[in-house]
Every structure is written in C-alpha cells, then in structure tokens.
Amino acid sequence: MYMQNPVFIPGPTNMPEILRKATDMPTLDHRSPLFGEILRPALAGVKKILKTEAAAVYVFPSTGTGGWETAVTNTLSPGDRVLAARHGMFSQRWIDMCQRHGLKVDIVEAAWGAGAPADRYEEILAADTAHEIKAVLVTHNETATGVKSDIAAVRRAIDAAEHPALLFVDGVSSIASMDFRMDEWSVDIAITGSQKGFMLPAGLAITAFSPKALAAVETARLPRTFFDIRDMARSYSNNAYPYTPAVGLLNGLKLSTELLLAEGMENVFARHRRIASGIRAAVRAWGLELCARSEDLYSDTVSAIRTPEGFDATSIVAHAAKTYDVAFGVGLGEVAGKVFRIGHLGSLTDVMALSGIATAEMVMVDLGLNIKLGSGVAAAQEHYRNGRASKIQAAA
After folding, report:
1. Which residues of 259-292 are buried (b: 16+ CB within 10 A; e: fewer)?
2. What does the pLDDT read at residue 3?
3. pLDDT-based confidence at 74, cuts 50/70/90?
4. Is the pLDDT of residue 387 over 60?
5. Helix-strand-coil percent breakdown of the chain, rounded to 5?
6. Between 350-366 and 375-395, two packed helices, what is the crossing angle to 10 degrees?
7. Which domains does the chain have, with CATH numbers?
8. Alpha carbons 246 and 332: distance in angstroms, whole number
9. Which residues on adjacent β-strands are paired with residue 205?
10. pLDDT confidence of 389, banded at 50, 70, 90?
C-alpha cells in the first residue's frame, strides 16, 4: 500500500526523503574502515544532541525497549531495589521489565495525566538511609498520556536526599525533539530510539552512560549478552560491532544528527513547541481537554485528547484511517477508549500539522461530536500566523 498522507502518531514519525534514502544504501563491509566513517560521526552527533561531554554512547540494533534492558542489565544485580512511578503505559512497561529481571521495584502510584512525583521520590530516598535503592527510573515524556516530567526536579530530589542512586531516564519520545540536558541534570543513563525525534525507521536503541553508570557496570550481576556495553565498547575501539550492525540505520543516524544540529537544537525545540501549541489551541477551540492535568505537564511531542464521556475515542482513530487514510494514535492502558492521540514530533511543519487538525475535525463531525468544522484549524492558523509574523517583524 502506498500512502501519501503524513502520519500523526507519536512514532514511528514521518521520514524526510533525504533520511529515507540515507538508510537505503548498498551493502558495506562493516569490518572495513568505511564503517568507522559512519559510526564515529553518528556517536558524536548523538552526544551533542544529548548535551553531554562526559557520557559514552552505545547504539544497539533494537528499539527503545532494548534500551531499557541495556540500562537495567548493565548496572544492576538480582534483588536490587529500584524506584519508579507508574503514571502511564510506558512507565508501567519499564516497571514490568524490572520485575521480570528479579528486581524489587518501589512503585509510586500516580494518576494517568500526572508527571513523575519528584516530592515523593525525595521522601522515599531520604527514608532509605541504608541506600538500598540503586536506581531511580523516570519516563521523561509519557507517550500514552502526553505528559512531560521534570527531570531537573527529580535530580534535585535525589540530591536533596543525599542519595547515591543512579538516575535512568526514558527519553524515547523526547530526545531530539524536546530539551534534554544529560550533563546538567546529572542523568546517568539516557535512553531513546531511532524512530521518533531522529526521524528514522525503528531499529536502533540509543543509550548513553555517565561515568558513574559505567562504574556500576563492573559490579552488576544481571545476565547480559547482546546488550553488554563492555563488548560494544571493545568493538567500538576498532570501529566495529560485536555482531553485525544495522549499517543503513547508522548511516541514517549520522545524517539525522547532522540535520538536527544544522537546524540548531534550540530551533528544533522551538519548532516542536510552536506546533504543539497550535494543536493545543485547536483542542481548546473544539471544547475538549488534554489528558495532561496542567500546562507545565504538556508534552511538545504528543497530545492525548479526551473525548466526551461515553464516546469511544478509538472510533476516531479507526474512522480516520478508513475514510481519510490518516493515522492518529489510540488510547492505551487506563485511557484506552477515552483519548485519541495526535503525535507532533520529528519531521513536521505548521502546514502538516494543520492537515492533521483538519482531518481530526472532519472525523469528529462525521462521528456526531459537537465540533464546528474549521474551528480548530482557525485557532491553530492564528497561532502559527502570529508566530511567523513575529519572526517577519524581527527580521525586518
């Protein structure tokens, strides 16, 4: 099936043609010096996007879930305690992974629509005077609910408790789209994937380890083979992999980081904020609400939009796909059937966002919701025009 419309799911995201072509390359001997010309710039580019000088980057043929497993298995031992909040589908899945690995998880229950509760983290860590908790897990951007958590606040909580726990951050749907400051926030392991902000196909788990996390690797006793960063580090020293790498995807990652850095990361973040704010303006014009409970929690990469009580939000996604060949995201877990999601990250423009807003309006009117055609589009247009007008005036 050939699709011409952009997708509005929170990943995989739309691929610029130049990146799609970069991944489509002839077979290359991955043991030749040519591979190093792809690998080294790709790793260096990721470090710049993460705003880190101290961390070591490891890229695996996998997805964000493999990145979670890389973090857990390389730094922890059977029976270790970790601290995590459950406030969405992806924070829940990371908790589940830890439990399957035989770790003891101190779970902080939070509402779906709330962020990671830094204040509760501080209380729990301060009470852990024996320092049994070895790691704190935070989902930076909860994709299921469109909620952004404050990583700097979590770091302040750990420091205020004077606790030595490692800080693991799931940045799968935030990194390369929303501001991420690995060194400034003292993040010990950052995790993302190729298929979201990097605008590539799924297939790469991208991880970064701080010096503190690297030290923990030497005493960790959870089993690991495929995701062992020690094997990866040894191979990197020879511009190689411990097994066959995804050469085409790594070539795409090299170019993706170049494109993002050429745009300027602050410009990338501003573009995502502007597009997200236009979509939020449309939601207000429709008379609907976001799943995120307050403005400080609003994600700039995905909006989870609540539909009226008793209405099946999944029908919006199904009708959009069947009638208009446009993909939106369904609600997951506790908000399944209660929200539909508009992904607005990666390769996206104001004009593309307007097409998604217009389609969502048509779908909701088709399904009998009390939405006025054009209302959301007009609200977003006004927002985008005002943003562009200020740029034009500044240039003049």
Report:
1. bbeeeebeebbebbbbbbbbbbbbbebbebbbbb
2. 75
3. very high
4. yes
5. 45, 15, 40
6. 170
7. 17-262 (3.40.640.10), 264-395 (3.90.1150.10)
8. 30
9. 60, 193
10. low
- Return the structure tokens found at 59: 């890229």
- C-alpha 200, offset from chain centre: 13
Quote the CA–CA distance of 340 and 279 in Å, as a whole number. 13
Alpha-carbon distance of 271 to 251, in angstroms, equals: 25
Q: What confidence tens digit (pLDDT) does each residue in 278-289 have? A: 999 999 999 999
Note the residue count of the chain.
396
155 phi and psi, to 5 degrees? -60, -40
| The two three-digit tokens of residue 308, written as one number | 């009226």
For the chain, percent of residues with pLDDT exceeding 70: 97
Q: In 182-313, where does DSSP find H-type helix? A: 211-217, 229-236, 247-263, 265-286
pTM of the model: 0.96
CA distances from 359 to 4, 235, 378 (A): 14, 48, 13
Rounded alpha-carbon distances, angstroms, from residue 160 to 69, 125, 135, 164, 168: 28, 9, 16, 11, 17
Residue type at position 254 = K
Distance CA 342, CA 317 (A): 10
Rounded to whole angstroms, how far apart are CA atoms 240 and 234?
9
> What are the residues whose beta carbons fall under 8 Å from the beta carbon of 278, sequence distance 6 or more?
350, 353, 354, 357, 379, 380, 383, 384
Residues 131-187: pLDDT tens digits?
999 999 999 999 999 999 999 999 999 999 999 999 999 999 999 999 999 999 999
